[in-house]
Amino acid sequence: MQKNRPALASLLAVIVTATLLVGCGSTKDNTATSRFYQSFVTRFNVYHNGNEAYKEGVQAQEKGHKDNYMELIPLYVISSPTTRKMGSSNFDKAIEKAQKASKLHSIKAKPKRKTGTLSEKDKQWYAKKEYNPFMHNVWLLMAKA
Fold first, then answer.
1. CA 121 → CA 25, 118, 127, distances in Å?
2. Residues 6+ apart with CB under 8 A from 131
3. What is the span of the domain harbouring residue 9?
4. pLDDT in tens for each of the 145 residues of the chain?
5. Exposure check for the chain: N or C terminus, fewer CB within 10 A?
6. What's the Rg (C-alpha) of the chain?
7. How far apart are CA 52 and CA 120, in angstroms?
């Protein structure tokens, strides 16, 4: 029995992990587990790749920009008409990633209500339109790109 204990523990860990992953992947169910999972996936899959593409686009604009000292020097690099087009494919990729996050990881389903009277904080929580706590960062990324 002592020899099989590590194998049994690892098998049990795999079963528990698989059960948790299968049970929390849906955006249709609004539970604490599904909110955590969707927020985690949004942050470390979709948002990360979109944010990296955005950074590459900004870096391409900064490297490709040349100041014309005969005219008024713009405050921001993007103000120059020639620089605006640089890095646009990276910005498009960032927008696509933000749209993908909104489409696949947005939790709009209302959670199950508590019984009894609700506090003002609970009423505000149930009145929300988006329950994925990381989606506001995705929306800001889309606006920046």
1. 27, 8, 10
2. 30, 35, 107, 108, 109, 111
3. 5-108+116-144
4. 566 777 777 777 777 666 655 555 677 778 888 889 999 999 999 999 999 999 999 999 989 888 888 888 888 888 777 888 888 899 999 999 999 999 998 888 888 877 788 888 888 888 888 888 899 999 999 999 8
5. N
6. 23
7. 39
Would you call 38 exposed, middle or buried from its count of C-beta atoms within 10 A (0-12, 13-18, 19+)? buried
Report the C-alpha gap between 61 and 83 in whole angstroms.
6
Number of domains in the chain: 1
Cα-Cα-Cα-Cα dihedral sign, residues 78, 81, 87, 92: positive
Greatest Cα pair distance, the chain, in angstroms, is 84
Q: Which of 127, 56, 138 is nearest to 99 (CA)?
A: 138
The number of residues making up the chain comes to 145
How crowded is residue 21: how many other Cβ atoms within 10 Å of its Cβ?
Answer: 10
